[in-house]
Design a protein that fits this description.
It contains eleven helices and 17 strands. It is of the alpha+beta class and 373 residues long. It folds into two domains: 155 residues, 60s Ribosomal Protein L30, Chain: A; 195 residues, Phosphoribosyl-aminoimidazole Synthetase, Chain A, domain 2 (Alpha-Beta Complex), CATH 3.90.650.10. Strands 10-13-7-14-11-16-15 form a seven-stranded mixed sheet, with helices on both faces. Strands 3-6-4-5 form a four-stranded mixed sheet, with helices on one face. Strand 15 and strand 16 form a beta hairpin. Helix 1 packs parallel to helix 4, helix 3 packs parallel to helix 4 and helix 7 crosses helix 11. It is globular and about 85 Å long. The termini are far apart.
Amino acid sequence: MSTENPDAPQLTYAEAGVDTAAGDSAVELMKAAVAGTHGPNVVGGFGSFAGLFDASVLAGMRRPLLATSTDGVGTKVEIARRLDKHDTIGQDLVGMVIDDIVVIGARPLFMTDYIACGSVDPERIAAIVGGIARACQACDTALIGGETAEHPGLLGPDEYDIAGAVTGVVEADAMLGPDRVEEGDVVVALAASGLHSNGYSLVRATLEAAGVGLGEHHEDFGRTVGEELLEPTRLYAPICLPMLERIEGIHALSHITGGGLGANLSRVLPEGLRARVIRSAWQVPPVFTAVHTWGNVPLADLENTLNMGIGMAVVCTPDAVDEVQAMASEQDCDSWVLGEIGSDNDPIEGTHISGVKGVAGGSVELLGDYRMS
């Protein structure tokens, strides 16, 4: 029996703020980009309730370990929203999740994404997913599933957030980690493309404090502030995974994300060893100097929040350094020697970092001053 009141106004799902037709339109717009990431191991194609990946690809492995990571891009999405440019934020998401499993030597197999928004704009959603798909292709990873959820009343019509998860695989006896690192190893930095996707709450606060607009041209950037801040995260999977196939002597990788160089590098070192990093080993890119200046941010806070121009660190034997740098150069990625691994019993002369992010491992000592313009 119907309980409708014919005299009362009717309220539909669309009038409540959820437009299912717009969601269907977004799906149609993104289908080609997603399908472009699918290889022969993806089963079932597009639109199923669950993404399927043929695990028989692992059958020839001796002891395959599955690796997984999940993350988002933080408040960098606010920069994309304010600039109304949404086709690069997906690369940030891919970089955040895939390069977290690359650090143990895992090869990414497939990824899923989640987009929550206040109102579905089909073109905007397609632009976001298109960026995710392009980055997945660059990392030889299948994008096999995702979800777009409309949250009216919780998010504003133009607001959204994105998250993702990746699954990869590594042979147990090939897994990188602290147990491989030895005294005398060298730390090589792989350059970041910019701020990547960490510390944007601090960055946005400094913009507000200094009254700097995203549309302002910045001479040191050679472009607008907004364009610099929206520069997508460099993808290290296409750089580091070939290194691991060709170069013996790579013992650990560290993805430099939230917490900065010291916090993340110390996570991949064993107890009893310390990485001695020379701050003057590289020229800090202008965007970090700008953030420092805009908010008068203490240098200690800056280096504990931002990557300072280093997106990935490679810990390797001395005789592997030249080949590591040569392969980075082949991928148009600058690199330089940061320092070396020594004993944690040596006298402390600089900033000492250990026991962060819940890891009781080695430590990092940052020595000297940064070269900042």
